[in-house]
Design a protein that fits this description.
368 residues, alpha/beta, Rossmann fold, 2 domains, 6-stranded mixed beta sheet, 42% helix, 10% strand
Length: 368
């Protein structure tokens, strides 16, 4: 059920941020250089000015394989007088979906895509080495115990996010976040649409990442995003990276395995598989073949195999159309090395309301 109020999303976001400043613990913004974190940063700065807060910690985990325009934009943001810059350029493990293996940004002894920034934190003192753990560790180190970090996640982008950020309280009266080991990360723009984001940026004439100016010519406005170029959800931009950011492409080509292969495959590798080859008897057999022959690491083969068994059982009584949708999502997840099964879980959530306890709701007369 959607509940409406007289308050618009901009006013609601500012009210949420005021509440978060008031609950105690040091507050900072996680910043990626994308449109959502741009809007979040400037709204948070608005509230900080109202409250007389002179400096706002802004945290950026630099994954090395960033757009040139992201780096340029980050230098601008970190130079703002109201910003306390926390630019982190340290070694950690990042999954390279182009090669199905780990990539170490800023790995000692390697020739990096670019030199580190003078203001950056360059030593990994965070007691973490995985991407998903780094944000909590960085926030704890720089903000302290019981920190509050703000992120630009929105539920419009994913059914899983919608379920996660509207289902239970993170803080009293606030569902739009998650608890970490030392603090909380909250998403005060969780109910914004991409139109709200761009309206806020354009109407306030805010400076934003120039990469979007080029991506707009390649992707619909709704789909335009900037992030690490080796992530399974964004490496599909590599085929036109050579056109829009040749400096970054050339640096990546020599630094990161399989960038050239991804580029030559163009977008074909990221298309959804419509049907399994006729040499297989059914989708489960084909998916098992893909797991055995495409997934690189043994531990990820085990994860995919176990998930496949669960999915086969889960969708056994679903309609042919819905079951096909799930199997296609599973196949795409294997091919793009989405070993966390984000694509699959999103598709399962789309169908969740129609199927309970393994039985489909009837679509005919309500009394049937």
């Amino acid at each position: 059920m959607i509940l409406y109020s007289e308050q618009n999303v901009y006013e609601a976001a500012k009210e949420r941020i005021r509440q978060l400043f008031s609950i105690g613990g040091r507050l900072g913004v996680c910043f990626s250089g994308g449109k959502d974190s741009t809007a979040l940063l400037h709204i948070t700065l608005e509230v900080a000015r109202e409250l007389g807060i002179r400096k706002l910690p802004v945290m950026f985990l630099d994954q090395e394989c960033e757009y040139t325009y992201t780096v340029e934009y980050m230098r601008y943001v970190m130079s703002l007088p109201e910003v306390e810059p926390i630019w982190v350029q340290v070694p950690f493990r990042l999954w390279n979906a182009n090669s199905g293996d780990w990539f170490i940004p800023w790995e000692p002894g390697k020739e990096w895509m670019r030199e580190k920034e003078d203001i950056a934190f360059k030593e990994n003192v965070y007691d973490a080495d995985r991407f998903k753990d780094m944000f909590n560790a960085i926030a704890f180190h720089h903000l302290g115990e019981d920190y509050v970090s703000l992120g630009g996640v929105r539920i419009e982008e994913s059914p899983a996010r919608r379920a996660g950020l509207t289902g239970k309280e993170t803080l009293p009266g606030m569902t739009y976040g998650k608890r970490c080991s030392h603090g909380v990360v909250m998403y005060p723009l969780y109910d914004w649409s991409y139109r709200d984001i761009w309206y806020y940026i354009f109407s306030n004439r805010l400076r934003y990442n120039k990469a979007y100016n080029y991506i707009f010519s390649k992707e619909p406005l709704r789909s335009a995003r900037v992030s690490s170029l080796i992530h399974e959800n964004s490496n599909q931009n590599i085929p036109y990276l050579q056109e829009i950011d040749p400096k970054a492409y050339n640096a990546m080509y020599t630094r990161i395995p399989n960038i050239g292969t991804t580029n030559h495959l163009l977008l074909d590798a990221f298309e959804e598989i419509r049907n399994y080859p006729n040499c297989f008897k059914d989708w489960p057999e084909y998916l098992k073949y893909l797991i055995d022959n495409i997934v690189a690491e043994d531990k990820n083969k085990i994860i995919f195999s176990n998930n496949l068994k669960t999915v086969i059982t889960k969708v056994a009584n679903w309609s042919d159309v819905d079951r096909l949708d799930i199997y296609r999502a599973f196949a795409r997840g294997i091919i793009t090395e989405d070993f966390e099964q984000t694509k699959l879980n999103n598709r399962l959530l789309v169908h969740k309301s129609k199927y309970k306890y393994g039985k489909a709701k009837r679509n005919n007369h309500p009394d049937a």
